[in-house]
Amino acid sequence: MQDIKINAVSIAERFMKYVKIDTQSDASSPTTPSTAKQKNLGKILAQELLELGLSDSHLDEYGYVYATIPSTTDKKVPVICFCSHMDTSPDSSGENVKPIIHKNYQGEDLVLPDDHNVVLRFSEHKDLKNQIGHDIITASGTTLLGADNKAGVAEIMEAATYLVQNPQIKHGTIKILFTPDEEIGRGVDKVNLAKLGAEFAYTIDGETLGSIEDETFSADGAKLVINGVSAHPGFAKGKMESAIKILADVISALPKDRLSAESTSQKEGFIHPVGMNGTAEQAEASFILRDFDNELLKAHGETLEGIVKEVMKAYPKSTYTLTIKEQYRNMKEVLDKYPQIMANGIEALKRAGLNPITRSIRGGTDGSRLSFMGLPCPNIFTGGHAFHGKQEWVAVQDMVKSVETIVHLAQVWEENA
User: Fold this and answer.
1) Which of 27, 89, 233, 292 is the least crowded, having the fewest Cβ atoms under 10 Å away?
2) What's the burial of 337, exposed, middle or buried (CB within 10 Å: 0-12/13-18/19+)?
3) Helix, strand, coil % (nearest 5) of the chain?
4) Is the Cβ–Cβ distance between 204 and 109 less than 8 Å?
5) Which residues touch 345 (CB under 8 Å, ≥6 apart)?
């Protein structure tokens, strides 16, 4: 087994370079990518891969980066792909990110300098207890960090660099894929799987050190439109049925002690409003519906419509439309058919000196949809934590272990071919 030594300084510098590039996606945009600025990072990645010697590296018109690391073995090895997304969440600003390294962390609360109200408390971030002596990277307090998923991007890039610079490591053909718009559920809308040419894949988009995930939520999106009755507010008595107030009643009637994002954990699903706007005449809201069980997911949609119908009884002159669309499905349905994918991933984690943790994701990744598109794709940790907010952080040493895992995984597939 090849001894692997990853440069911690290199991965940290690479990551901090990438997070400074604003790549927030925008769900309201109809284009792919949803924001042109995502291509700014894509151009840099494609050029770095070209400079590494990967001659087919390129950024396509839709904002996807493709590249190939050639095989170093005579054996016939399945082509595997490592995938991460370049965009960051619209939930918190990603503009002017200022990454900070807190070296040799000793268990203290981390007060971020640009907003002293943003504090990473040792008591609230359970994994900080495993980071004593490590180097923690945060943002400065006014933005998210972007570890989701620029940690994964940096780790794949560092692993690619290591493999190219160490051709004595035996591995099959490896494909690299960086996607836009994952955070808004459109990460693989325009991916060209025929061009990619991979048989199996791994997203590097997880969280805790040592985790590998083969199960995600199944997900639907719902749009509710209320058509109320508008009237001049000075003469509205007995006439107006405000769509805004009707919608407020619907939101208020949603379960609070169950079926809500705030009250569920582990394998429990939910109905979660994510946006609303309108006028007295018409108002609309968007929801996400989530569960690990497809039948329960369907039931959540029925529950939502039942609540709407009950509320509408008080507004006989008003109408509604509720549209529910599939977003993605639990990738475990596909991955269970290819046990070698998880087995090889677990072996790679062990070779990196880690205790493998098989988990379910209360969310989704590009791998959710890729699996159902014919590219089975579990998810491997990045070391990032507290995604989508100003307290987001990652430990440099955990990122090193993610890079080691990727390199070991390339070897494991070659050995088992």
Assistant:
1) 233
2) exposed
3) 35, 25, 45
4) no
5) 202, 212, 356, 378, 380, 409
182 is catalytic: yes
Q: Which residue has the higher pLDDT, 275 or 308?
A: 308
Strands 65-69, 58-59: pairing is: antiparallel
What does pLDDT average to over the chain?
Answer: 97
Instruction: Determine which helix (DSSP H) or strand (DSSP E) holds 85, and give its type and residue range.
Output: strand 80-85
Note the pLDDT tens digit of each residue in 341-379. 999 999 999 999 999 999 999 988 899 999 999 999 999
**Which of the residues 148, 181, 182, 404 is marked catalytic?**
182
**What Cα–Cα distance (Å) separates residue 280 from each residue in 184, 252, 277, 310, 406?**
29, 18, 10, 20, 54
Asked whether the predicted pLDDT for residue 241 surpasses 90, the reply is: yes
CA distances (Å), origin 123, targets 36, 115, 120, 391 = 39, 20, 9, 14
CA distances from 303 to 133, 216, 250, 259, 263 (A): 49, 22, 12, 10, 17
Catalytic choice (87, 207, 213, 404): 87
Q: Which two tokens stand for residue 83?
A: 């995938």
To the nearest 10 degrees (0 to 180), the angle between helices 396-416 and 8-19 is 110
β-bridge pairing 357-361 and 211-216:
parallel
